[in-house]
Amino acid sequence: MHYKSPRPEDKDELKKVISEVEDFVEWIFQHHNSGKIRKSKVIHDGVWGTNRYKAHEIALINTPLIQRLRQIHQTAFTYFIYPSTKHTRFDHTLGVTAQVYNLYHALDRKFENSGDEKQQLLNDGILTALRLAAILHDCGHGPLSHTSEEIYGGYPEIKMLQQYEPFIEASPHEILSYLIIDSIKFKEVFSKIKEEYNLTVDYDLMKNSIVGYVGEDQLDDHYKIDILNGPFDADKLDYLFRDGHFSGLPLQIDLERLWHTLDINKADGRRRLTIDWGGVSSLEQITFSKMTLFPAVYHHHKVRACDCMLKGIIEYILANDIVINEIEEPKALDINLSRAVNFLYLTDNDIFSLNGLYKDHEKLHSLIHNLEYRRLLKRVVVISRDTVEDKESIDNYYKFSEEKAEIDGLDFYRGLAKQIWEKAGTPGLHQELWVDCPKHPSFGEVSDTWVSPLGEGQASMPLSDFFKAERYAAQYKLKKWRSHVFCKYDAIEKVAEATVDIFREKFGIEFKRLAFDLCHVTPPKNLG
């Protein structure tokens, strides 16, 4: 079911979301007055070196919609732990655009002298649409990238949209990016760019590649989507290299071999981007790189503590019905963060600027101030298969990260945190105590990646036939995945004791001393 043909009970909500997106796009373009870009420009990148962007691409990059991404960190709060990870969504955007070019031209070079009918599968129009899509693919990100996405991604309007094509497999920020590009105001701006630079653009390909949507009548065009939104796409190639480079964990991926072994073949009833047998090692390197970054960077306990602190700030704002309004005048913009689209009005700078805006909200000021100046929540206990007596007891605890459940009307883990907070005697604010249970990293792309036929009359095979990623995923689950309870420093002793009682009561979990030793916390007296 397409989102433009909604169920009756969803029509009003859908209209509201579309209207909110239109308002944002009108707002972001309110002062935009583009001038003529005379020629292409060269941009130097710390990861990919020198790349050229055409005049119409620069015209789009220069819009406030894309320039806004300069103020959003690519990896949220990791710069508090790895100081050089200050790269932004803007940097990433340029890098993804460059990688689209590299993937496309690797295919083009392979087919140009082959005399193969595959030459007909590529044309300049595909490259134009996909590079423009790369420039736009992250325009729907809110402040601190995926951290705010974890918040608004659970909002009812986003969950509703994810029930409809083309959003069923899309992440929340991809949905917002699609709706922005589909808005009346953006189409008006984009039409001027097309007219100015005499462009013909496959608009549907541009939009659909952002959300990874392939309709039943487009199965032979799936390879186009794969270039930007597939199992080893331009987006992944850039963020893996960029995040690794700036965190000081340089990753080894043989891109030259990857490009050389790219192909297009039938797989699972559709035409897909595939890799020759000789490129399997490059795909293995991509998977290994992802496995390296998750425990070291994305799931680092201090990064997760920062994420929880931002969630606490937003939770406090919502709990106290605070409307963000930077200027006290009738025409000022009111931003109510109970709606997903309203996160688009904010960047990282705006979150921290709230520090000085609320003189009547000293507690909110304290929450923001503590995060801005890195007075982080402390971990009280590590929850993993190594820190509990019965390894299987973790499964009943973890399952609620994927199954929606509530405690006393709250999200399951927030309800659990509140019970610990109350058991500990309500130290500080509820927003300063968190049970953080990150999802296991997904390696599903391995089963959706296809290896080109090994010979005449052979069929494409899934990469999982060559590389058993589930073994590595299982090993991550057993040895690298960790969940935590975070709280203020002066509440550690009480929270540690309450955590032991609540986890024993709720899940039958008995902690080992190691669970507290890893946090440099004295094990509580009620530890079994």
- Beta-strand proportion: 5-15%
User: Which segments are poorly predicted (pLDDT under 50) over 5 or more consecutive residues?
Assistant: 326-330
Q: Identify the overall geometry.
A: globular
* Number of DSSP E strands: 11
Separation, N- and C-terminal Cα atoms? 53 Å
What's the average pLDDT?
92
The percent of residues in helical segments reads: 40-55%
Q: How would you characterize the overall build of this protein?
A:
- It contains 22 helices and 11 strands.
- α4 runs antiparallel to α5 (124-136).
- By secondary structure, the protein is of the alpha+beta class.
- Mean pLDDT is 92; it is low at 326-330.
- Strands 3-4-9-10 form a 4-stranded mixed β-sheet.
- A hairpin with a 3-residue loop joins β1 and β2 (49-53).
Break the fold down into its secondary structure elements and pairings:
Layout: H1 11-28, E1 41-45, E2 49-53, H2 55-61, H3 64-67, H4 89-112, H5 124-136, H6 146-152, H7 156-161, H8 172-181, H9 184-196, H10 203-211, H11 222-228, H12 234-247, H13 255-260, E3 262-267, E4 270-275, H14 280-298, H15 301-319, H16 348-353, H17 362-372, E5 378-383, H18 393-398, E6 406-407, E7 410-411, H19 412-423, E8 434-436, E9 450-451, E10 461-462, H20 469-480, E11 483-487, H21 492-507, H22 514-517
Parallel strand pairs: 4-9
Antiparallel strand pairs: 1-2, 3-4, 5-11, 6-7, 8-11, 9-10
Helix pairs in contact: 4-5, 4-12, 5-10, 5-11, 8-10, 10-11, 12-14, 15-17, 19-21
